[in-house]
Design a protein that fits this description.
6-stranded mixed sheet; about 5% helix; globular; binds CU-O-CU linkage; binds copper (II) ion
Length: about 450
Protein backbone atom coordinates (compact mmCIF):
# COMPACT_ATOMS: atom_id res chain seq x y z
CA UNK A 1 0.00 0.00 0.00
CA UNK A 2 1.19 3.47 -0.83
CA UNK A 3 0.86 6.02 1.93
CA UNK A 4 0.75 9.74 1.44
CA UNK A 5 1.42 11.91 4.44
CA UNK A 6 0.14 15.44 4.21
CA UNK A 7 1.87 17.91 6.48
CA UNK A 8 0.87 21.43 7.31
CA UNK A 9 3.90 23.57 6.61
CA UNK A 10 5.00 26.24 9.09
CA UNK A 11 3.82 29.06 6.86
CA UNK A 12 0.35 27.55 6.88
CA UNK A 13 0.49 27.07 3.13
CA UNK A 14 -0.40 24.12 0.99
CA UNK A 15 0.25 20.67 2.32
CA UNK A 16 3.39 19.00 1.03
CA UNK A 17 2.74 15.48 -0.12
CA UNK A 18 4.97 12.74 -1.27
CA UNK A 19 5.21 9.07 -1.88
CA UNK A 20 7.79 6.38 -2.25
CA UNK A 21 7.84 3.20 -4.17
CA UNK A 22 9.19 0.55 -1.83
CA UNK A 23 5.88 -1.29 -1.89
CA UNK A 24 3.46 -2.15 -4.61
CA UNK A 25 0.78 0.48 -4.73
CA UNK A 26 -2.65 -1.03 -4.55
CA UNK A 27 -4.50 2.02 -3.28
CA UNK A 28 -3.74 5.58 -2.34
CA UNK A 29 -4.57 6.81 1.13
CA UNK A 30 -4.32 10.50 1.87
CA UNK A 31 -3.88 11.08 5.57
CA UNK A 32 -4.17 14.55 6.97
CA UNK A 33 -2.12 15.97 9.77
CA UNK A 34 -4.39 17.72 12.31
CA UNK A 35 -4.75 21.44 11.71
CA UNK A 36 -2.29 23.66 13.51
CA UNK A 37 -3.29 26.72 15.55
CA UNK A 38 -1.05 29.73 15.64
CA UNK A 39 -0.74 32.76 17.81
CA UNK A 40 -1.48 36.08 16.16
CA UNK A 41 -0.41 39.43 17.49
CA UNK A 42 0.86 37.87 20.71
CA UNK A 43 -2.35 35.96 21.46
CA UNK A 44 -3.11 32.33 20.92
CA UNK A 45 -6.75 31.46 21.39
CA UNK A 46 -8.81 28.44 20.55
CA UNK A 47 -11.29 25.84 21.69
CA UNK A 48 -10.60 22.22 22.50
CA UNK A 49 -13.61 19.95 22.42
CA UNK A 50 -12.86 16.67 24.19
CA UNK A 51 -15.09 13.97 22.76
CA UNK A 52 -15.37 10.60 21.11
CA UNK A 53 -13.75 9.96 17.76
CA UNK A 54 -14.93 6.64 16.38
CA UNK A 55 -14.08 4.11 19.08
CA UNK A 56 -11.52 6.37 20.71
CA UNK A 57 -11.29 9.86 22.15
CA UNK A 58 -9.85 13.01 20.61
CA UNK A 59 -9.91 16.80 20.63
CA UNK A 60 -11.90 18.62 17.95
CA UNK A 61 -12.57 15.30 16.26
CA UNK A 62 -8.93 14.26 15.85
CA UNK A 63 -6.23 12.45 17.78
CA UNK A 64 -3.65 13.81 18.26
CA UNK A 65 -5.55 17.05 18.85
CA UNK A 66 -4.57 20.31 17.18
CA UNK A 67 -1.01 21.54 17.56
CA UNK A 68 -0.85 24.90 19.31
CA UNK A 69 2.00 27.20 18.33
CA UNK A 70 3.07 30.29 20.20
CA UNK A 71 6.18 32.45 20.49
CA UNK A 72 7.82 33.00 23.87
CA UNK A 73 5.86 35.73 25.68
CA UNK A 74 2.55 35.15 23.93
CA UNK A 75 -0.66 35.03 25.94
CA UNK A 76 -2.71 31.88 25.60
CA UNK A 77 -6.43 31.47 26.13
CA UNK A 78 -7.94 28.11 25.29
CA UNK A 79 -11.34 26.91 26.33
CA UNK A 80 -11.97 23.27 26.98
CA UNK A 81 -15.45 21.98 26.18
CA UNK A 82 -16.23 18.58 27.64
CA UNK A 83 -18.26 16.39 25.29
CA UNK A 84 -17.27 13.19 27.10
CA UNK A 85 -19.45 11.25 29.51
CA UNK A 86 -16.86 11.70 32.27
CA UNK A 87 -15.08 14.60 33.90
CA UNK A 88 -11.88 15.76 32.23
CA UNK A 89 -9.29 18.56 32.28
CA UNK A 90 -6.28 19.78 30.35
CA UNK A 91 -2.81 19.67 31.83
CA UNK A 92 -0.17 21.64 29.88
CA UNK A 93 2.69 19.20 30.35
CA UNK A 94 5.99 20.97 31.00
CA UNK A 95 4.63 24.51 30.84
CA UNK A 96 5.11 26.98 33.66
CA UNK A 97 1.42 27.88 34.07
CA UNK A 98 -0.29 29.38 37.16
CA UNK A 99 -1.30 26.61 39.54
CA UNK A 100 -5.05 27.07 38.88
CA UNK A 101 -4.42 26.44 35.15
CA UNK A 102 -2.55 23.17 35.69
CA UNK A 103 -5.63 20.93 35.27
CA UNK A 104 -5.03 18.70 38.29
CA UNK A 105 -8.01 17.63 40.38
CA UNK A 106 -6.47 18.43 43.77
CA UNK A 107 -6.31 22.11 42.71
CA UNK A 108 -9.31 22.55 40.39
CA UNK A 109 -12.37 20.34 40.00
CA UNK A 110 -12.59 18.33 36.80
CA UNK A 111 -14.76 19.87 34.08
CA UNK A 112 -18.09 18.00 34.16
CA UNK A 113 -19.69 16.47 31.10
CA UNK A 114 -21.26 19.30 29.10
CA UNK A 115 -19.19 21.89 30.98
CA UNK A 116 -16.33 24.11 29.91
CA UNK A 117 -13.29 25.83 31.38
CA UNK A 118 -11.13 28.69 30.18
CA UNK A 119 -7.37 28.14 30.49
CA UNK A 120 -5.30 31.33 30.40
CA UNK A 121 -1.54 31.64 30.83
CA UNK A 122 1.57 33.04 29.20
CA UNK A 123 3.82 30.81 27.11
CA UNK A 124 6.98 31.95 28.80
CA UNK A 125 9.58 29.34 27.89
CA UNK A 126 10.58 27.77 24.58
CA UNK A 127 10.19 24.08 23.99
CA UNK A 128 8.08 21.28 22.62
CA UNK A 129 5.32 20.72 25.14
CA UNK A 130 2.15 18.68 25.07
CA UNK A 131 -1.26 18.62 26.65
CA UNK A 132 -3.45 15.85 28.03
CA UNK A 133 -6.14 15.33 30.70
CA UNK A 134 -5.13 14.94 34.34
CA UNK A 135 -8.35 13.13 35.32
CA UNK A 136 -8.62 9.36 34.87
CA UNK A 137 -5.29 9.94 33.20
CA UNK A 138 -4.12 6.60 31.92
CA UNK A 139 -7.45 5.74 30.33
CA UNK A 140 -8.18 9.14 28.80
CA UNK A 141 -4.67 9.60 27.42
CA UNK A 142 -4.47 6.10 26.06
CA UNK A 143 -7.78 6.50 24.28
CA UNK A 144 -6.39 9.50 22.39
CA UNK A 145 -6.68 12.72 24.40
CA UNK A 146 -3.37 14.47 23.75
CA UNK A 147 -1.78 17.02 21.47
CA UNK A 148 1.37 19.11 21.06
CA UNK A 149 2.08 22.67 22.14
CA UNK A 150 5.09 24.33 20.51
CA UNK A 151 6.63 27.48 21.94
CA UNK A 152 9.19 28.98 19.61
CA UNK A 153 12.22 30.97 20.65
CA UNK A 154 12.48 33.99 18.31
CA UNK A 155 16.28 33.62 18.45
CA UNK A 156 16.10 30.20 16.77
CA UNK A 157 16.56 29.78 13.02
CA UNK A 158 13.34 29.08 11.15
CA UNK A 159 13.29 25.65 9.53
CA UNK A 160 11.74 25.03 6.12
CA UNK A 161 9.34 22.75 7.90
CA UNK A 162 8.52 22.66 11.61
CA UNK A 163 7.21 19.15 12.00
CA UNK A 164 5.42 17.82 15.07
CA UNK A 165 5.55 14.04 15.47
CA UNK A 166 3.36 12.72 18.26
CA UNK A 167 4.10 9.06 18.94
CA UNK A 168 1.82 6.59 20.66
CA UNK A 169 1.97 2.83 21.01
CA UNK A 170 -0.72 0.29 21.64
CA UNK A 171 -0.96 0.45 25.41
CA UNK A 172 -3.00 -1.18 28.12
CA UNK A 173 -6.42 0.28 27.35
CA UNK A 174 -6.51 -0.45 23.65
CA UNK A 175 -8.14 -3.77 24.45
CA UNK A 176 -10.84 -1.87 26.26
CA UNK A 177 -12.04 0.04 23.23
CA UNK A 178 -14.65 -2.51 22.41
CA UNK A 179 -15.96 -2.36 25.96
CA UNK A 180 -16.16 1.42 25.79
CA UNK A 181 -17.92 1.35 22.45
CA UNK A 182 -20.43 -1.00 24.02
CA UNK A 183 -20.80 1.33 26.98
CA UNK A 184 -19.12 -0.86 29.57
CA UNK A 185 -15.82 0.50 30.72
CA UNK A 186 -14.53 -2.00 33.24
CA UNK A 187 -12.00 0.57 34.49
CA UNK A 188 -9.41 -2.13 35.08
CA UNK A 189 -5.85 -2.10 33.92
CA UNK A 190 -5.19 -4.80 31.39
CA UNK A 191 -1.99 -6.80 31.16
CA UNK A 192 1.11 -4.90 30.14
CA UNK A 193 1.70 -5.14 26.40
CA UNK A 194 4.14 -7.70 25.11
CA UNK A 195 6.96 -5.42 23.92
CA UNK A 196 7.44 -7.43 20.74
CA UNK A 197 3.81 -6.64 19.86
CA UNK A 198 4.12 -2.89 20.32
CA UNK A 199 3.02 -1.03 17.26
CA UNK A 200 3.81 2.64 17.12
CA UNK A 201 1.71 5.26 15.44
CA UNK A 202 2.93 8.72 14.60
CA UNK A 203 0.25 11.41 14.35
CA UNK A 204 -2.16 8.50 14.28
CA UNK A 205 -0.48 6.93 11.23
CA UNK A 206 1.31 3.62 10.96
CA UNK A 207 4.73 3.89 9.26
CA UNK A 208 3.91 6.92 7.10
CA UNK A 209 6.22 8.38 4.49
CA UNK A 210 7.36 11.97 4.63
CA UNK A 211 8.51 13.42 1.31
CA UNK A 212 11.29 15.98 1.62
CA UNK A 213 11.92 18.77 -0.85
CA UNK A 214 15.47 18.71 -2.25
CA UNK A 215 17.75 20.23 0.38
CA UNK A 216 14.86 20.78 2.78
CA UNK A 217 15.67 21.55 6.42
CA UNK A 218 13.24 20.19 8.97
CA UNK A 219 12.96 20.58 12.72
CA UNK A 220 11.20 17.42 13.93
CA UNK A 221 9.61 17.73 17.36
CA UNK A 222 9.10 14.28 18.84
CA UNK A 223 6.56 13.76 21.63
CA UNK A 224 6.17 10.38 23.33
CA UNK A 225 2.49 10.37 24.31
CA UNK A 226 2.30 6.66 25.05
CA UNK A 227 1.25 5.41 28.46
CA UNK A 228 4.07 2.98 28.99
CA UNK A 229 6.19 2.42 25.87
CA UNK A 230 9.67 3.90 25.46
CA UNK A 231 11.15 4.99 22.15
CA UNK A 232 14.79 4.17 21.55
CA UNK A 233 15.06 6.37 18.52
CA UNK A 234 17.43 5.96 15.58
CA UNK A 235 17.35 8.68 12.92
CA UNK A 236 20.33 8.26 10.57
CA UNK A 237 22.11 11.49 9.71
CA UNK A 238 19.97 13.65 12.00
CA UNK A 239 21.12 15.72 14.97
CA UNK A 240 19.56 15.94 18.42
CA UNK A 241 19.30 19.69 19.12
CA UNK A 242 16.75 19.98 21.92
CA UNK A 243 15.18 18.15 24.84
CA UNK A 244 11.94 18.84 26.69
CA UNK A 245 12.64 22.54 27.01
CA UNK A 246 14.78 24.49 24.60
CA UNK A 247 18.21 23.85 23.11
CA UNK A 248 20.81 21.42 24.38
CA UNK A 249 24.16 23.09 24.97
CA UNK A 250 25.68 20.84 22.28
CA UNK A 251 24.12 18.71 19.53
CA UNK A 252 24.30 14.91 19.56
CA UNK A 253 23.63 12.08 17.14
CA UNK A 254 20.23 10.41 17.09
CA UNK A 255 21.31 6.88 17.83
CA UNK A 256 19.43 4.97 20.53
CA UNK A 257 18.06 8.23 21.93
CA UNK A 258 15.71 7.22 24.72
CA UNK A 259 12.41 9.10 24.78
CA UNK A 260 10.44 7.95 27.81
CA UNK A 261 6.67 8.43 28.06
CA UNK A 262 6.05 12.15 28.53
CA UNK A 263 9.47 13.23 27.21
CA UNK A 264 10.18 15.23 24.07
CA UNK A 265 13.20 15.70 21.82
CA UNK A 266 13.89 18.12 18.97
CA UNK A 267 15.75 16.79 15.95
CA UNK A 268 17.32 18.67 13.05
CA UNK A 269 16.91 16.83 9.76
CA UNK A 270 18.58 18.10 6.60
CA UNK A 271 17.81 16.44 3.27
CA UNK A 272 20.69 14.88 1.36
CA UNK A 273 20.61 11.26 2.51
CA UNK A 274 18.09 9.92 0.04
CA UNK A 275 15.73 7.35 1.47
CA UNK A 276 15.90 7.03 5.28
CA UNK A 277 14.20 4.71 7.74
CA UNK A 278 13.53 6.14 11.20
CA UNK A 279 13.32 3.29 13.70
CA UNK A 280 12.95 2.45 17.36
CA UNK A 281 14.93 -0.38 18.90
CA UNK A 282 13.10 -2.75 21.20
CA UNK A 283 13.19 -1.36 24.69
CA UNK A 284 11.30 -2.27 27.83
CA UNK A 285 10.99 -0.46 31.18
CA UNK A 286 11.58 -3.84 32.84
CA UNK A 287 15.19 -4.04 31.65
CA UNK A 288 16.07 -1.64 28.85
CA UNK A 289 17.32 -2.80 25.47
CA UNK A 290 15.49 -6.00 24.69
CA UNK A 291 15.27 -8.79 22.19
CA UNK A 292 13.57 -8.24 18.85
CA UNK A 293 13.98 -6.43 15.56
CA UNK A 294 13.87 -2.64 15.40
CA UNK A 295 10.51 -1.27 14.29
CA UNK A 296 10.25 1.28 11.48
CA UNK A 297 8.42 4.39 12.72
CA UNK A 298 8.41 6.40 9.51
CA UNK A 299 10.14 6.68 6.17
CA UNK A 300 11.72 9.80 4.72
CA UNK A 301 11.61 10.06 0.98
CA UNK A 302 14.53 12.44 0.46
CA UNK A 303 16.98 13.32 -2.27
CA UNK A 304 20.77 13.54 -2.59
CA UNK A 305 20.65 17.33 -2.62
CA UNK A 306 22.37 18.35 0.56
CA UNK A 307 20.88 21.25 2.49
CA UNK A 308 22.83 23.59 4.77
CA UNK A 309 22.50 23.02 8.53
CA UNK A 310 19.87 25.25 10.09
CA UNK A 311 22.39 27.14 12.20
CA UNK A 312 21.15 26.64 15.75
CA UNK A 313 23.29 28.29 18.41
CA UNK A 314 24.70 25.89 20.98
CA UNK A 315 26.25 27.73 23.90
CA UNK A 316 28.53 24.82 24.83
CA UNK A 317 27.71 25.24 28.53
CA UNK A 318 28.69 22.33 30.75
CA UNK A 319 26.00 20.89 32.99
CA UNK A 320 25.94 22.70 36.37
CA UNK A 321 28.09 21.06 39.05
CA UNK A 322 26.49 18.17 40.92
CA UNK A 323 26.99 18.94 44.61
CA UNK A 324 27.44 16.42 47.40
CA UNK A 325 24.07 17.07 49.03
CA UNK A 326 20.39 16.85 48.17
CA UNK A 327 17.52 19.03 49.38
CA UNK A 328 14.72 16.74 48.30
CA UNK A 329 15.05 12.98 47.86
CA UNK A 330 12.27 10.95 46.28
CA UNK A 331 12.33 7.16 46.36
CA UNK A 332 10.38 5.29 43.68
CA UNK A 333 9.46 1.78 44.66
CA UNK A 334 6.79 -0.90 44.58
CA UNK A 335 5.10 -3.09 42.06
CA UNK A 336 6.07 -6.37 43.63
CA UNK A 337 2.84 -8.30 44.15
CA UNK A 338 -0.14 -6.04 44.55
CA UNK A 339 0.52 -3.46 41.79
CA UNK A 340 0.86 -0.63 44.32
CA UNK A 341 3.43 1.94 43.24
CA UNK A 342 4.95 4.18 45.87
CA UNK A 343 6.94 7.36 46.28
CA UNK A 344 8.68 7.46 49.66
CA UNK A 345 6.58 4.53 50.81
CA UNK A 346 3.33 6.40 50.17
CA UNK A 347 0.65 5.79 47.60
CA UNK A 348 -1.59 8.52 46.17
CA UNK A 349 -3.84 9.98 47.53
CA UNK A 350 -2.48 9.14 51.00
CA UNK A 351 0.62 11.27 50.64
CA UNK A 352 2.48 13.82 52.74
CA UNK A 353 3.22 16.89 50.61
CA UNK A 354 6.67 18.44 51.02
CA UNK A 355 6.89 22.20 51.24
CA UNK A 356 9.67 24.37 49.84
CA UNK A 357 10.14 28.15 49.78
CA UNK A 358 9.17 30.09 46.70
CA UNK A 359 12.39 31.11 44.97
CA UNK A 360 14.55 28.40 46.56
CA UNK A 361 17.25 26.67 44.49
CA UNK A 362 17.11 23.00 45.31
CA UNK A 363 18.94 19.81 44.47
CA UNK A 364 16.38 17.08 43.78
CA UNK A 365 17.40 13.44 43.83
CA UNK A 366 15.19 10.67 42.45
CA UNK A 367 16.14 7.16 43.52
CA UNK A 368 14.65 4.14 41.89
CA UNK A 369 14.76 1.08 44.11
CA UNK A 370 12.36 -0.98 42.02
CA UNK A 371 12.77 -3.41 39.14
CA UNK A 372 11.32 -1.16 36.44
CA UNK A 373 12.18 2.27 35.06
CA UNK A 374 10.12 5.31 36.06
CA UNK A 375 9.94 8.60 34.14
CA UNK A 376 10.05 11.29 36.88
CA UNK A 377 7.82 14.30 36.11
CA UNK A 378 7.29 17.53 38.06
CA UNK A 379 4.55 19.99 37.10
CA UNK A 380 4.90 23.75 36.61
CA UNK A 381 8.71 23.86 36.57
CA UNK A 382 11.71 22.88 34.57
CA UNK A 383 14.77 21.24 36.08
CA UNK A 384 18.35 21.02 34.95
CA UNK A 385 19.58 17.45 34.66
CA UNK A 386 22.80 17.13 36.70
CA UNK A 387 23.66 13.44 36.68
CA UNK A 388 22.50 9.86 36.30
CA UNK A 389 24.33 7.51 38.68
CA UNK A 390 26.91 10.23 39.22
CA UNK A 391 27.63 10.73 35.52
CA UNK A 392 26.86 14.18 34.10
CA UNK A 393 25.05 14.35 30.73
CA UNK A 394 27.25 15.21 27.75
CA UNK A 395 25.45 18.53 27.30
CA UNK A 396 23.48 20.82 29.59
CA UNK A 397 19.74 20.26 29.22
CA UNK A 398 16.44 21.34 30.74
CA UNK A 399 13.90 18.68 31.54
CA UNK A 400 10.48 18.32 33.08
CA UNK A 401 10.39 14.57 32.53
CA UNK A 402 13.41 12.33 32.93
CA UNK A 403 13.79 8.59 32.99
CA UNK A 404 15.07 7.09 36.23
CA UNK A 405 16.48 3.70 35.22
CA UNK A 406 16.23 0.58 37.37
CA UNK A 407 18.20 1.00 40.62
CA UNK A 408 19.52 4.34 39.39
CA UNK A 409 19.83 7.76 41.02
CA UNK A 410 19.06 10.86 38.97
CA UNK A 411 19.95 14.30 40.28
CA UNK A 412 18.47 17.58 39.12
CA UNK A 413 18.55 21.27 39.98
CA UNK A 414 15.24 23.03 40.57
CA UNK A 415 14.42 26.71 40.92
CA UNK A 416 11.14 26.58 42.80
CA UNK A 417 9.86 29.77 41.20
CA UNK A 418 6.19 28.94 40.58
CA UNK A 419 3.92 29.09 43.64
CA UNK A 420 1.33 26.39 44.17
CA UNK A 421 0.65 22.70 44.74
CA UNK A 422 2.43 20.73 42.07
CA UNK A 423 2.06 17.10 41.13
CA UNK A 424 5.24 15.02 41.06
CA UNK A 425 4.74 11.59 39.59
CA UNK A 426 5.84 8.74 37.40
CA UNK A 427 4.80 9.21 33.76
CA UNK A 428 4.14 5.53 33.21
CA UNK A 429 0.47 6.31 33.52
CA UNK A 430 -0.51 2.93 34.93
CA UNK A 431 1.96 3.59 37.76
CA UNK A 432 0.62 7.11 38.24
CA UNK A 433 -2.94 5.80 38.45
CA UNK A 434 -1.83 3.16 40.94
CA UNK A 435 -0.32 5.49 43.48
CA UNK A 436 3.02 6.78 42.14
CA UNK A 437 2.26 10.46 42.65
CA UNK A 438 2.86 13.02 45.36
CA UNK A 439 2.68 16.80 45.83
CA UNK A 440 5.36 19.48 46.08
CA UNK A 441 4.10 22.68 47.68
CA UNK A 442 5.92 25.83 46.67
CA UNK A 443 4.97 28.79 48.91
CU1 LIG B 1 2.06 14.67 31.50
CU2 LIG B 1 1.17 15.01 35.44
O1 LIG B 1 1.58 14.82 33.47
CU1 LIG C 1 6.70 4.28 37.27
Amino acid sequence: MLLLLACVDPAGGDAAQGDHGHDTASETVVLEFPADRWSEGGLLSGTLVAGSVDDHFGYNGVSPGPTFRATVGDDVSISLVNDLDDGTSVHWHGMEVPNAMDGVSFVTDPVSPGGSFEYAFTANRPGTFWYHPHVDVSRQVDLGLYGAFVVTDPADPVPDRDLVLVFDAADEYEGEVEAIAGGHDDGELHDAPDPSQTTWRVNGLSQPTLALEPGERVLARVVNASNAAYLSLNWPGARLVGGDQGRLSAPASVEEVLVAPGQRVEIEVVDGRGYVEVTTSMWTPAGGASYGAAEVLLYLDGSDTEGEPLGFTFDGALPSPDPAYADLVYTFQGGAHDEAWLIDGESWPDVTPRTVDLGAELIVEARNISATSHPFHLHGHRLELLSVNGVAPSAARWVDTVDVPIRATVRMKLSADNAGSWALHCHLLGHEDHGMMTILEVE
